[in-house]
Amino acid sequence: MSRSRGRRYDNEPKLNMKKVMAVIIAILVIVMFVIGIKELLKGKDEIKEKTFITGYYTIFENGKWGVIDTKQNIIIEPSYEEMIIIPDSTKPIFICTINTNYEAGTFETKVLNNKNKELYTNYQKIEVIYNNDKSNNLWYESNVLKVQKDGKYGLINLEGKEILNCEYDEIKAIVGTKNAFITIKNNKQGIVDNFGNILIQNNYEQINSLTTKYENGFIVKSENGKYGIVNSNGGKVLEEKYEEIKNIYGNNMYVVKENSKWKIIDTEGNTYLENSFEDVKQINSDNIILKKNGKYGIITKSGDVKVSPEYDDLTYAFTDTYIAKKAEKYGIINTNNEEKVQFKYTNIKYIEEADFITAQKENSESDLLNRNFNIKASGIISEINTDKNYIKVRSGEEYKYYNFKLEEKQNTEILNTNTIFLSKKDGKYGYINNKGIVVVDYIYDDATEQNKYGYVSVKKDGKWGSLDQTGKTIVEPTYTLENNLIIDFIGKWHLAEDINANYYTK
Fold first, then answer.
1. Model confidence over 259-274: pLDDT tens digits?
2. For position 49, what pLDDT does the model report?
3. From residue 117, how far is each of 69, 95, 111, 124, 207 by CA, in Å?
């Protein structure tokens, strides 16, 4: 019996191992494919679950103004003749101008929310407070509104709480200075902050900021036409006895003119460098950038010359480092007048909040240098983002990202709240998810990273369109935006040419 059984097994066909391995490999490929599909679908599902913040923006269509939110909902139909102002894009507060009379120079306002309900109806007029910097970039204060009641002005916050009584003849911005305002009462000026705190009583003929930071104090002019300094708490720093005071401050020192002579004084009453300069540009520690015979140099308050006046311009950067200009080129020197960066750039800036140096070249590209003056990156700087602490640089046809240590990073590392990420292959742009899976094919000639509301802009055949946060097409590339400095979409709406106005259109 045992032999018969053994012979029967011996006569059965043997397994073909090559075929077995082929079947196993085929099964593994199918399993891997299924897993890959699952991962792709999982990645897309994760994208769909992402919730972006809601914001509000002014829109312009057919000659009328309205409001949308960043989910593309029309909040106010485009029906107003004047641009609708949104003080804070994260809050549904919309200031609409009505009944404008251009000949008389009069107008009325009303404030609506996202339910089209009118707010703050106990005031005759509600306005934002406009301001601008030295480069004439316009902005308005985002956390406070000027209101009028019975012909007098006060302040409210965006929740509608009155933070400054309506008892002033006028309230206006201090040019270039945030969070502080000039009030006028009985032809006298004072200062309040954006919380309605009175910093300086209405006792002065004129008030100007000493620097762009109101914490450094204010230059005030008295009835007798003389100037002094008052700090942000209303305390008197310098008596009103000077003919002029420059908008310069450092190390508790001020530049004043008395008896037709310029000098530097401190809060202790000490005088330095009297009548020994044409102009003073900056004071940092004991070092002073002054102008003499048309050139700039560095001198101490005691009169020791550190850098003789030989430069066309000088600007303090950090520690003992100064950006200098000569023969129409910029370089960097120290207080020993040693050249740290060659004079070969068209401009140099120290980005204080990020602690690195940008040095612009003739071809519009820039070198990025660290504090040791080492070049860490080069290209066209397209963005310096101080919220997420990164720099975006275009190098050739590629975009590169760096942190503020000037270390190169992937966009998936830097833009870690995005759902899709710009990717380039064979000269074309597409999008991947955070796992590197392609979610939008490489078919576009140009494209942008995702904006904070989840949209991306894509370019094909010279036209721009937009995709949503999952890579789904919202608008096929149909817009020619040659004159737009910034390409940005909210759904079907694109940012207008005038980026200062900050509105969207079709």
1. 999 999 999 989 999 9
2. 53
3. 16, 12, 8, 17, 39
